[in-house]
């Protein structure tokens, strides 16, 4: 089973390959994409145990000389110290401008490895091999790469498109349940902001969605998320307008991740809470109906994702929001929805209402 989703970006276009048990095709797909020479596979300890050998053997079978580096798992790895350490690893591996990087892992590895590829020798090709649901449907697609600073999430980075994305659905079987559920928050986001029938599909399959027993449903869900993101990115690669809708739930979500300390809430959990905040704000500031807001809250609850963050006060989150990428002139900008499937960007919420909405959670 191989399901291809094209991302149309002129001479930077590429394909997202989705299927079950396709990791062994990595080498052949890289060769078909014109990649050659030496490569460095960047992964983490959790993923390496299950999938590194298969990736290396696949690359070797087509004559691609691959070496690997294994990093600690977790959001803390996405930092400046690791970037410079990886530059040294690239040199040790003998990478030149005709070489490439493979990001084998979840969103942390994809963002970090992509940023290293974007900046080493002023840019060498790279390939995304996402192994988490969140990275398959979101972070591996669209060319956003970057690292965190102590002051905030993803404050340093580059728009840098991969040569291809390979999403092997079978890698999800070794994903911790918490991480899989967190990825579902990003899946739900696409329905909220862009595709009401897709949101309905998720509601109708809420039980099966929480298992890995239905490959056809999983492929359909991952594929549709990638189609939506590919469509948005092809129209607005560098987030000058439309692409910002993908930040639904992320404004408050990123602030919570920062204040709580990266790792206390995994990304999708923070996005779940941020989505409830944005949905409730949408009633007052974007005309969302209460019944549709209730549907949004219910689906996150049904997926057993957190919908509030007790113990974190608004004053601390507000400080974190002041350095968020989406803040302009000190005022955070929110993605809000007028109905499920229709969203808008650049919305401001008065200071006192932001605090009240947060406290009501």
Task: Give short descriptive properties of this protein.
Rossmann fold; two-stranded antiparallel ribbon; seven-stranded mixed β-sheet; 361 residues; alpha/beta; single chain; Dehydroquinate synthase-like, alpha domain
Element-by-element helix/strand order:
EEHEHEHEHEHEEEHHHHHHHEEH
Strand order of the largest sheet: 1-2-9-6-5-3-4
Mean pLDDT: 95
Approximate shape: globular
Give the DSSP E fraction (strand runs of 2 or more residues): 15-25%
Query: What is the level 1 CATH name of the largest domain?
Result: Alpha Beta
Largest β sheet strand count, sense and barrel closure: 7 strands, mixed
SSE-based structural type = alpha/beta
Radius of gyration: 20 Å
**What is the CATH third-level topology name of the largest domain?**
Rossmann fold
Q: Low-confidence segments, ≥5 residues, pLDDT <50?
A: none
Number of strands: 11
The appropriate CATH architecture of the largest domain is 3-Layer(aba) Sandwich
Proportion of helical residues: 40-55%
Number of discrete helical segments: 13
The number of distinct structural domains comes to: 2
Please render the helix and strand layout as text.
Elements: E1 3-7, E2 14-19, H1 26-32, E3 38-44, H2 45-61, E4 65-71, H3 80-92, E5 100-105, H4 107-119, E6 126-130, H5 133-139, E7 144-149, E8 152-159, E9 164-168, H6 177-194, H7 196-204, H8 215-235, H9 250-260, H10 267-285, H11 290-302, H12 314-321, E10 334-339, E11 342-347, H13 351-360
Parallel strand pairs: 2-9, 3-4, 3-5, 5-6, 6-9
Antiparallel strand pairs: 1-2, 7-8, 10-11
Helix pairs in contact: 1-2, 3-4, 5-6, 5-8, 6-7, 6-10, 9-10, 9-12, 10-11
